[in-house]
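quick one, two chains, predict together pls
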Amino acid sequence: MSFHLAGLHRAAVAGLTLCLGLAVLQGPVQAQAADSDIIEVVSDRGVVAWLKQEPSIPMIAVSAIWRDGGAVSDPAALTGRANLVSGLLDEGAGDLDSQAFQQRLDDLAVRLSFDAGRDSFSLSLQTLTANAAEAFRLTGQALTSPRFDDEPVERIRRQILTGIARSAQDPNSIAGRLFSSLAYGDDPYGRPVEGTLETVAAIGPDDLRDFVAQRLARNNLIIGVVGDVSPEALKDLLDAAFGSLPERAVPLGLGDVSMQPERGLTVSDFPTSQTSFIFGLPGLKRDDPDYDAARVMNHMLGGGGFSSLLTEEVREKRGLTYGIYSYLRPSDRDGLWLGGLSTSNDRAAEAWQVLRETIREYAETGPDAERLANAKANMNGAFPLRLTSNKGIAGLLVALQRYDLGKDYVARRPELINAVTIDDVKRVARRILDLDGMLAVAVGQPVGLATGQ
Amino acid sequence: MSRVPLPTPASTPARLPLLALLLLLPLLLIWPVDRASAGLFNAETFRLDNGMEVVVIPDHRAPVVVHMVWYRLGSADEPVGRSGVAHFLEHLLFKGTDKIAPGDFSKIVAANGGRDNAFTSLDYTGYFQTIARDRLELVMEMEADRMVNLRLDENDVATERDVVLEERRQRTDSTPQGQFGEQARAALFLQHPYGRPVIGWQEEIEKLSLEDAMAFYKRYYAPNNAILIVAGDITAADLKPLAEKYYGVIPANPDTVVEPLPLEPPHRAARRVLHSDPRVAVTSWQRQYLADSIGWGERSRSAPLNFLSEILGGGSTSRLYRALVVDQGIAVSAGAWYSGVSRGPGNFGLYATPAPDTDVAAVEAAMDAALAEIIANGVTEAELERARTGLLADAIYARDSLFTGARIFGNALTAGATVDDVESWPDRVRAVTSEDVVEAARAVFRMERSVTAILSPEEKS
């Protein structure tokens, strides 16, 4: 669709965070989705899914992930393998070659896609209720008997290589890759999910088959389903799609990891009028007892859009940027607190200084009571807003299982947020917001900023 | 990403700022926005005495509403020399009124658990909040207030102008694709304001003043030029008294008249845009044709053009992808788009990324061959039915998002369509024949009404 339909937007809030490759779990939940609305369905073959029935639209939305199936499972020399597989599972399976498989999906208006994140491999399926049986059967074929024919493998490989070449010319992509590499070095977290020109070229068909055999199993699978389907009917559908997967994934054997000790600012020269910053500090994993306090803390600093301090200071008062944001990124093996902004080269030094001063002052003094109250009200009120779609709720059902939050999390969450005190926020701000330990990258031609500053 | 994100060249730079819009973007890219279904949304509509239109899209899945006010004016209505003023004013509407202190609008929405934002396009400017049903009155009161009571000072204007200049850098100037899209779009029109970038030219944004913004505001922001759209846990019967209480009391402004858009004179020469930039890593090719839309040319071609777009370039079973990417291997991506929900000319676009070591001329020749083939031999029944199935299913999937439904109606109404037009879209989809598709292809694929644009690393001669 052309430019003008998308329109221009006033706010830049969360978009740029995507360049680091992992969606943030902000824990969205549908308000009145009491735990009794969520049903655990176990199929005859033992496939487990959480279901929320929603009969008002004749469609079904499925979200699923395989833990340890993301880029973290890529051997170093084959970085980008999970991502390449994600582009190929719907390119032919069983008796159907690429074109036949795609036509079958189109004929039934089935929307099936796969994605490789850092930690997990994920599936998204939307189907009309009337076509559900065939949609789940095709999904099962894609997962258990993908063909990996030469033609689609080479075609999708070329697309990925083109994307890598293109993103090497995009300041935000450059910044994201540079940051990950400086933060984690040789660890899998330091490598790009899409791989590099060399590693993607090196991936062979057997490597793809190894991935499917080792990673797409039942014991690391989490499923959420929302839509016009009964628990009984869902059992058969689950078996059709997931019932034939191997019982166990091969363990990865990776332990936790931490950001590298060398921090500070790295400037990377790129010929453009704006400088793109990404900055970060060690954060928290999702199961940290301080996680909710950290979430409230971050909301006030840079996670709350127009009500956040960083937006007030850098954008509203000084006009230094179109968008500045920060967020917590918990992952399976580490947690980070991250942020970013873009600003014109000639004002980059000023923006950098205002950013640091704002963080420093917040870490020292914390919020006032009114700001905290408003932040809690926003977090609790906005929570259900993001879950007005079947697709969104399906993703939530996966997150609830992934982080072991329980079916009653929906009901408990407001209490968890409301229980955070000013002292909690100050404590966690001091714990996280240590400017001396900040790692940052600036891609552009910032005037008055240099590596090491 | 399971696939490399190769954006259609005419689309907004891949990274749209707001999360809500990010979620919406795939819909917009794939689904032309006038797709809906009879009885699917079950929208209700009425008009207030002051002329303000109201559309209600009931959806009771969650106790949430999306509240939007759309003004029937966009960047195409800007005075010459003031490009960007519509979008600039949209930013400034968050600066305050007698009742709301500067910057407090969004904070009040946030403190009440809501989310808000705004958007500007060629034909419209819109403001919205997503919020719990029991806070709807609050945002209606605030939105009605800023329709006529905006207060600005010079400092607000200067700071926000810097923000918009940063937005322009981020969106358009920081990547060669952004500038390329702007140049191609400008070349498509001889004098029509659709050729100007919505955000404005940098040199003109820099000169926008408080007076420019206020003049635009006073002339166009009035209930008789606005549409209220509420989607979610509400009915028309419940909304009507609230709409009358908050919006109905604002007097109509008789001076608010949106002038017809300037005509676009006949095009007599095909144009080429050769844009090179050392930052470019991968060559891109695109072509855009002027196309019939809701408000321009033959409106009845709109549905057939959606079919044409699907059949030619709607995904990996489409003709262009199949021919250029799969069979010939001369491109890594290829596709088409159609944009026809507008007052003025729509556009039909084709795009491809040549494979490494492939001459872009070979890609262009293959494109031309695919177009000639469809005009000479038509489309198959299987292609027609696959496109029809997809278009009808899209209408059902569109109901899964409150925001999408509201946006579909706002977009259609500001382009000159009616609520009934949106609701009866599936009927028009069902009626399309293969002859209609070929007729539309003949009408649109005329080189003299096209721009062919190439973005490359090196100088082209």
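DSSP finds 17 helices and eleven strands in chain B.
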